[in-house]
Design goal:
Elements lengths: L1 E6 L2 E7 L14 E7 L1 H11 L3 E8 L3 H12 L3 E7 L5 E7 L5 E6 L13 H6 E7 L4 H14 L2 E5 L15 E5 H14 L15 H4 L4 E5 L4 E6 L5 E4 L11 H14 L4 H15 L20
Parallel strand pairs: 1-4, 1-8, 2-6, 4-5, 8-9, 9-10, 10-11
Antiparallel strand pairs: 2-3, 6-7, 11-12, 12-13
Length: about 300
């Protein structure tokens, strides 16, 4: 099976800081670098690096940055035939990384805003085992692509980030991958729609959150603490984190999502795929950058 990832590709400009600036404050960066990023591009690279047949559908910039992005994707093993130039400039992400590895990210969509569901070739969608989507492109594009994938018999995974202010329609989604704050937001929205009181302190364990969201599977990432696997009507599974000295957590959520769904297309069980994804994301956190930090020599353990 192949993995079809559809969404954003950006140029990342990353500055390394001792601490984040306060409003009105100017600080000096220790270093800076420019590289290819974007949530979906990162995820497609992660999937390719763990052995998946990884295809990306995206709009790159009609400029040198777009050309460079396609070259970096190909170097990582991503099939980029469906990455096409838009009318606008390459999307950009301005990232600051604090000394403890925490980060802030500001995204300018650029050509990503032009991506439409029709940009996904029907044949490519039909041959995919999974479609992996995220929310750095228009929500309309994401929802229409999910519906097309469902009609084609392709399973849909959504990395529901960055979350919009309102509810997200998950009717055509099989799996959602989010962090704890994002999961809480989705559950509060679902509870509000059904008249149930929203509980911002809700504990996901034992409450069947996947069923509450109408999903087969909800994956909640917990940073260094690992991840929790919630499958509708089944016991929760905890995946332990991997202790590392993190220097930059930018792109680690994308690394996890891409590696997890990538390994699912390779036939791994959810538990094995999540174990591989946790190790892959932890390794990425030990280097600066997003997809440029992903390990090129990563070994998948069939016993994970």
């Amino acid at each position: 099976m192949t993995l079809l990832t559809m969404g954003s590709v950006n140029r990342d400009i990353t500055a390394q800081l001792i601490d984040f600036p306060q409003p009105g404050q100017t600080v000096l960066a220790a270093a800076a670098e420019t590289a290819t990023g974007g949530k979906s591009a990162n995820q497609a690279v992660a999937a390719a690096l763990v052995g998946a047949d990884s295809h990306l559908v995206a709009r790159c910039g009609a400029d040198a940055a777009g050309t460079e992005a396609v070259a970096s994707l190909l170097e990582a093993g991503v099939r980029a035939e469906a990455v096409t130039p838009g009318r606008g400039a390459q999307g950009m992400a301005f990232i600051t990384v604090r000394a403890d590895g925490e980060n802030t990210i500001v995204v300018i969509p650029g050509a990503n805003a032009e991506l439409a569901a029709e940009d996904c070739p029907p044949g490519l969608l039909a041959q995919a085992g999974w479609a992996l989507l995220s929310l750095e492109v228009p929500l309309k594009t994401v929802l229409e692509t999910a519906a097309r994938a469902r009609a084609a018999g392709t399973k849909v995974a959504l990395n529901a980030s960055p979350l919009p202010a309102g509810p997200v329609d998950l009717r055509d989604v099989d799996m959602v991958i989010v962090n704890e704050g994002e999961a809480r937001h989705l559950l509060e929205s679902a509870q509000g729609q059904t008249g149930k009181p929203a509980d911002s302190e809700a504990d996901f364990a034992g409450s069947d959150p996947a069923a509450q969201l109408g999903l087969e599977t909800l994956i909640v990432t917990r940073g260094a603490a690992g991840a929790a696997l919630h499958r509708r009507g089944e016991p929760d599974v905890e995946v332990s984190g991997i202790p590392v000295r993190a220097v930059d957590t930018s792109g680690c959520g994308d690394a996890f999502a891409g590696a997890l769904v990538g390994r699912l297309t390779c036939g791994d069980s959810l538990e094995a795929a999540a174990g591989t994804a946790t190790r892959f994301a932890a390794d990425a956190a030990t280097r600066f950058g997003t997809q440029c930090s992903y390990p090129r020599d990563f070994r998948v353990s069939t016993g994970s």
